Amino acid sequence: MTREMITIKTADGTVDGYFFHGDEPAPAVIIYMDGIGLRPALYDFADRLVDNGYSVLLPNMFYRFGPAKPLKLPDDRDEMMKMVVTVTPTTSKRDTAAFLDFLSGRPEVKGDKVGTTGYCMGGAQALTAAAEFPERVVAAAAFHAGALATDRPDSPHRHVGKITGDVYVAVAGIDPFLGPNETDEIKAALEAASPRHRLEIYPDVQHGWTMPDLPIYDKPAAERHWDNMLALFKRKLK
Asked: Can you give the pTM of this predicted structure?
């Protein structure tokens, strides 16, 4: 298994990040990070996807503020939030165009169909990628995601009808970061768009439950998230 430091030119600058792959070409998955940023927990996620037969791009979505650096909560929360609010569906659309071009040029990638998965703020980016590039992104997953249904014109829930692949959204049963009607709005939008788009609530777990480096990590629910995500990618990418 190889973890390669990479840079990708975008319309807004240069993204740093990592590209993970095995010895043989494999379908590609893009991981859109949570607000804490690139760190060993996400490297382990990428490694696990490689072990399951994928090549994985893990970009630093805070690249507009410079190269990736560790963030520690709660000390760096204010700094983190300043960066989080700049990552929108509109900016991620531009970024994803560059990510897909990068993957097209890599011999470690098999085929042109791509999967996306996102955590926290990255969930909106994963769905936006599927909506804006439906001919390439055929599977999209979002876990304990925020800002999936907002008042913004680029809110993901307004555009899921453009997605031609399959979608899986998993919501924490305890999530103070969601608006009062946000889950209902994204669920209704997904159901109206396609029977292949599904939202599931994981009861009794908190926002961030998938992350083993956070105190609210829930291992049984985290493994369930892996089961559902891997089933989605296997169905659509293999």
From this structure: 0.97
The Cα 108–Cα 23 span in angstroms is 8
Domain coverage including residue 75:
2-237
Q: What percent of the chain is modeled with pLDDT above 90?
A: 95
- Tell me if 173 sits within 8 A of 201, measured CB to CB: yes
- 206 phi and psi angles, rounded to 5 deg: -105, 160
Rounded to 10°, the helix 122-132/89-104 angle is 70
The share of the chain scoring above pLDDT 70, in percent, equals 100
- Residues making up the chain, counted from first to last: 238
Tell me how many domains the chain contains.
Answer: 1
Compute how many other C-beta atoms are within 10 angstroms of the C-beta atom of residue 46: 22
pLDDT averaged over every residue in the chain: 96
CATH of the domain at 161: 3.40.50.1820
pLDDT-wise least confident of 81-90, 102-111, 113-122, 214-223: 81-90
Where does the chain show beta strands of DSSP type E? 2-10, 13-21, 26-32, 55-59, 109-119, 137-143, 166-174, 197-206
Instruction: Find the radius of gyration of the CA atoms of the chain.
Output: 16
